């Protein structure tokens, strides 16, 4: 047997109805806030991700699916901010005087060790706003995210917020971190030893138990933030308060690359074990320039749909379309049901299915039950003679004889 590739999986009913609900809500909420959809290619030039995510990140150094295509190096997209920014620049949206608000839903690819909530092909729903520094937009992006998660009936989740400063204050902060960390370097994990030299901010991200006392003792970025960043962060918090959004301040929440600036946030959900981050986002005021566009500020988030779906309750799903299951008790009754009942119901928008398997009535009723329909229609010789059908309510169990002409009216 040929199996699906490690870290990939098939999604079908009943799980797929949860996806459908989440995707529909995402589209509706984006429309409510004025975001339009963008669909970018699944593969892009490798260089886009090297520049757009950063050469020194785990994604770029270890996790990308990259292959040679003629003279080109191509990569399956591991995330979608860099592709959206590429499309923004390539399509001249950076020449528009208006701001650009986009959303996307689609698969991403990372060669990670698969486990619950972590796959090699997974899907993200994300949004990006380009062209404004207004802190109210930071709050809007977060509000949209929280509203979306709430709409999927996930109950346990929390928002963590931080500011990572900008190119003025961050060098001062990272220099301070290096100064404080270098003398203790030998006591820290191998990754941190490397990070202290290459990307000290990333030390704050370390999860190794033994390193925690050292990291906890480090200063927060607050005292290093320049005036503009301080004012911006305070304003983001003001707008979040206006929207009644609660959060915890996580001074260790970082995005390690220079083009990520100011606002950074993450949403953590309960009941997911170690892979409990459902969404992350923040500002990237230098990324458009980095990718060859006119200086344009940006902010967005990416939410992992696979993880969100794991956190959604069973009740959160798109309802099935079939409301009626039709059971025939003879060959003639089958033809009668096929022609005179099924077709008019569908024409009137009432989803129905006729029992093709034609086993016993008992087996057919079991099928109807399993499909979760509201009604069963039974037809035999008697019903045919009267131009009627027997309608059974699957919830209450009561049955009634209804004339064919009244069937549609009754079921509506
Ligand atoms: P990131 O692009 O790394 O900030 O990730 C954003 C969100 O995507 C995370 O919070 C996860 O919910 C989701 N995600 C990232 N990597 C994976 C993966 N390998 N499998 C499933 N979900 C993922």
Detail the topology: elements first, then pairings:
Layout: H1 15-32, E1 36-37, E2 43-45, H2 46-53, H3 58-63, E3 66-69, E4 72-76, H4 81-90, E5 100-109, E6 121-130, H5 135-151, E7 157-163, H6 170-181, H7 190-198, H8 212-216, H9 227-242, E8 248-249, E9 261-269, E10 277-283, H10 287-290, E11 298-304, H11 305-311, E12 324-328, H12 331-347, E13 352-354, H13 361-371, E14 375-379, H14 381-385, E15 388-393, E16 399-403, H15 404-411
Parallel strand pairs: 1-5, 7-8, 12-13, 12-14
Antiparallel strand pairs: 2-4, 3-4, 5-6, 6-11, 7-9, 9-10, 10-11, 14-15, 15-16
Helix pairs in contact: 1-5, 2-4, 5-9
Bound molecules: adenosine monophosphate.
Task: Tell me what the structure shows.
By secondary structure, the chain is an alpha+beta fold. Helix content is 37%, strand content 22%. Strands 1-5-6-11-10-9-7-8 form an 8-stranded mixed β-sheet. It has a 5-stranded mixed β-sheet with strand order 13-12-14-15-16, with helices on both faces. The radius of gyration is 28 Å and the shape is elongated. Adenosine monophosphate (AMP) binds at residues 79, 110, 112, 117-119, 122, 124, 277-280, 302, 304, 306-307.
**Integer-rounded radius of gyration:** 28 Å
Straight-line N-to-C gap: 46 Å
The helix-and-strand class reads: alpha+beta
Major β-sheet profile: 8 strands, mixed
**Oligomerization state of this entry?**
single chain
pLDDT under 50 segments (min length 5)?
none
Biggest sheet, spatial arrangement of strands: 1-5-6-11-10-9-7-8
Global geometry: elongated
Query: What is the helix fraction of residues, given as a range?
Result: 25-40%
Instruction: Note the beta-strand portion.
Output: 15-25%
Report the total helices.
Answer: 15
Overall number of strands: 16
Average pLDDT, to the nearest integer?
94
Bound compounds, please?
A: adenosine monophosphate
